[in-house]
Amino acid sequence: MFHIRRKYFYFLLILIFSGLKQGFAQQLPAQSKLALDRHQDSLSHFADDIVNAPEPEQRFRSDSFFVRMLVRALKVPNSFYYPFDSLQTISKLYAPDSSFRIFTWQVKKDEFVYIQRGAIQKRTEDGSLKLIPLHDASMFTSKPEDSVRTAANWIGAIYYRIIENTYQGKPVYTLLGFDSYDIGSNKKWMDILTFNERGEPEFGGPYFSFKNDTANSFGKNQMRFCIEYNKDAGTTFNYDSSLNMIVYDHLISESNEPLRKDTYVPDGDYEGFRWQNGKWFHIIKVFNIALHDGQYPQDLKILNDAGGIDENKLKEQSEINKKKADAK
Predict the structure, then answer these.
(1) Local structure of 84: helix, strand or coil
(2) Which residues pair with 201 in a beta bridge?
(3) What is the pLDDT of residues 16-48, one digit of tens each?
(4) Which pLDDT value is given to residue 217?
(5) Tens of pLDDT, residues 176-210
(6) What span, in angstroms and rounded, lies between the C-alpha atoms of 188 and 183?
(7) Is there a contact between 226 and 251 (Cβ–Cβ < 8 Å)?
(8) Is 280 within 8 Å of 239 (Cβ atoms)?
(9) Who contacts 297 (Cβ-Cβ below 8 Å, separation ≥6)?
(10) DSSP codes joined into one string, 89-150
């Protein structure tokens, strides 16, 4: 059940860091808020069943109802500013510049197949809806890392972090996400999101460099990056603001079977990526000494050692987020 707790841990983090700013409430008319409150009440039931319904038919039927009802809700004027914070099984993640937000979730067919779902809602000046659906094509490709993709053939993930950088005057958004993947392993993705001159999303791109690696095992056409690991292993893959880096666990096969990703677990070392001159440069070893699991300073640790929610930490982080929002 550990991987299930981790999944809801990420959903919790998504709620905390989804950019629910007080200023947004001022831009949402009372009439629109009332209508969206009613929509949210209806959506909550289906959002819960997408994850918790016992049969796949129920989960997919709930997903279908949810999508149609969500689109209707988003057509309410200025819906961009409504947080949908009761939808706890759905990721709602705002870009740091608030130019868009992205909804992501997953539907479990069986122990072997998880399908990611998503949509990008762009902010508009007149409060009208501009929505771009995302279609998960990850199960139809054997090389998900080596191509730039569109909304029509997206490599799906449940996103829990967006990092914004600028290159040549253009915003570059780095997405960190989770994928339950299959019966034996999970994946965590690091993808790139940009928008072309027509405002259409493009995922991936030549934003990764491994030139400093002594043994480069990554392809030349690395357009996105992921780690795959044992279903019950706890892994770190997040942005550390104190280091100004993305830091993740170095993984090894616990059974010395390097071709079997379901045997991979953290070994106490950390790798990372640092943004420089329009690329994420791979760092082979973040720290000079190996650390035991849990020693790495994690600014997003909301679970206590027993696996439950640390209410004090949650309250502290909420206050930090509120102060950040008030300062903007």
Answers:
(1) coil
(2) 195
(3) 444 444 456 558 899 999 999 999 999 999 999
(4) 58
(5) 999 999 999 999 999 999 999 999 999 999 999 99
(6) 15
(7) no
(8) no
(9) 240, 242
(10) TSEEEE-TTSSEEEEEEEEEEETTEEEEEEEEEE--TT----EEEEEB-GGG-S-TTSS-B-
